[in-house]
Amino acid sequence: MTTIENHDYDVLIIGAGGAGLRAAIEAKQQGLRVGIITKSLLGKAHTVMAEGGMAAAMGNVYPEDNWQVHFRDTMRGGKYLNNYRMAELHAKEAPERVLELEQWGALFDRTKDGKILQRDFGGHRYARLAHVGDRTGLELIRTLQQKVVSMGVDVFMECKVLQLLKDANGAVSGVAAYWRANGEFVTFSAKAVILATGGAGKSWKFTSNSWEGTGDGHAMALWAGSELIDMECIQFHPTGMVWPMSVRGLLVTEGVRGDGGVLRNSLGERFMFNYVAPMFRAETAETEEEADKWYDDHSAGRRPPELLPRDEVARAINAEVKAGRGSPHGGVFLDIASRRSAEFIRRRLPSMYHQFMELAGVDITREPMEIGPTCHYIMGGVKVDADTAATKTPGLFAAGEVAAGLHGANRLGGNSLSDLIVFGKRAGEGAVNYIKDGGGSGKFAQSDVDSAIAEALAPFERTEGENPYDIQRDLQEMMQANVGIIRTGSELEFAISELDKLTKRVHNIKVKGGRAYNPGWNLATDLPAMITVSKCVAVGALSRKESRGGHTRDDFPASVAELGTVNFTHTSTDGKWDSTFEVEPQPILTITPELKALLEEAK
Amino acid sequence: MSDITMRVWRGDAEGGDFETYTIERNEGEVVLDVIHRIQATEAPDLACRWNCKAGKCGSCAVEVNGKPRLMCMTRMDTLPEGPVTVTPMKTFPIIRDLVTDVSFNYAQAEKVPALLPPPMPADGYRIYQEDVERAQEFRKCIECFMCQDVCHVIRDHEDNKQHYAGPRFFIRYAELEMHPLDTNDRRDLVREDMGLGYCNITKCCTEVCPEHIKITDNAIIPLKERVVDAHYDPVAWLGRKIRRKTKTSAAEAAVQPAP
User: What is the predicted ipTM?
Assistant: First the structure.
């Protein structure tokens, strides 16, 4: 038997997006040996796609803003399914985390008096998003990347993790992985592992996610014994491009609406006025005149309905298209051209201008954009302790999109970048404290490594079998058709049976070519996680017999009060990806009377 | 619609050759879409890098018909009639097919001395929009490394990689030099170890920048002026002292309470 390359760390972080990098900074600052593994190159993580900004109640534009209002907005946006403690910590700590970025070199857009400028976004009562034009994610990742490099953290690029490894006591103690460049296997031993693997949107056909969003962390945590919650809550971002077909799903920032853009149907109507849910009526404008006054002065009128939370807007667009009032390519129109000057649009939304001009041949300063909902974000994920980011499995921590709780049933725009820095830091601290308290052995059984390798190599051994790309395509089309924005019991049952068939097909994959930088093989190793996550989403959606946030059931269109107090919780009994997972409702964390009073006040 | 012919370089460090794929043409597609369709059908092992598919991450840089391009932002209908040639970036060692070893750039990043800001006041720095705009232009960089690829100083002279940082890092040094909070001085480093003098401002880097950063005019030339003035001109010794003071003053201003 050949010896496999091994690297040893105190804290090992999987994922080099905002959460992973922020966690690394924290653990490194406390003097530990820190390693980061990423499937891609450093600086390419999905965080760069974030456009609009990061939400933090700094009060730079509206001094009346504070953490209590941000907390309330987050809970309301999440339809109260949130882990209240995460929402509280997030609202309190985000301003400090944003200011910290400036010390590391971030250059945000400024107010007239030299503070960080903040912009409006859906569901946020005040202009609250610190930003740099419409490329805030790039600024965040570059700032953290440069900080991590200057601190001398080891970053292992283009390395794909196959499985978490555990010691004899059941604590997570390392990972088995392979180098994408040459296909050789490698192990990492660590006292603590932080999952910062991002989302899972690649299981849908129309998605804003890159190839990386395959739910690796979600799946590996489940297999290792942790719990997944709220998996049915998927955010379909209201504004993705719909044409040309090749860019369908590509994100169009909510900043377009925050900066004055409005939604119109094929009749030219600003239809959002017809879709204001009772819970938002008191604070939403009733006429176009009133809404238009709000942009310049939030006390002159109530909010435009285009800035309702994303779940509300996505459902409205879906309904307009279904009613036959859609645009030529099956979306609706997003119009900023008729409302703001060309100079304003180019300055505030440079990458949107560029994106439409280059890819669709549309000049957004002169014409409306055609947009429609796109799979964007998974609110569900690994259940964690709010303060420490610890999962149920000892030695395993999770932060960012892979973790669940902060956003409840629906995430507000701008709350994910702030999520990354608030809980990335807390995950780093959590891991450090776990180690300081004596946790973690860094020991694992070689037999577990061998079985992970054998499973990864199986697609090369078969003389005949299926192309992994065919399975991925069928999975995406099936999930899009049956587990999309609007769901029904019969379609979800069908989806679950189809997922069983897809599971069998994954067992019959034949990979062509060698192990060195082989995308087909890479996809074959991604598919078990994609199927695992898809199963949890479908099963969770079937279990939740109501509509709430990013989960809408055609057969149960109303919210049910009792279901607003439970998370559907998935567990694995045998740790195998191709088994059936258990699901059961568990009560959500009970909110403290003080914070409950804050929410009641606002109602 | 008619079919298209793609000539894609396949191989590794040992060598390789062009493989020709004939594939149906679809409306509105970019080069990356076509490569993906080839992967999904004929060649699942065709290696290429990509992530965002929206021109924001800079992963999918290759050479299309001999010119550095992002595959995700190159519309097929903007290319001339006839076969489309796709090759890996020439300046970097080949890993496989269209994927190159870009570790040269990550090694350069490790050499950059970090931002050195003054301590932050309790309520944050005070920095004005006009003070951030110059450095913000350089922070638009998506690190596609096409400017490094096209720069003949390292494209044609492998040896120069030992002592040349390249355009991507000249804009990084310029950014730090113009950063309103920075108090570090990297001018000797840029001149002595980063090879700024090798650049003879042919502007090839500016031409290929997908973010339209004016690399030569706004970063390299001002950086050359500062470095050269500082080092060679005896009169400028004084100027250097003054400029340094000016630079520190910007950082000092950022920690003053708002007027």
Answer: 0.94
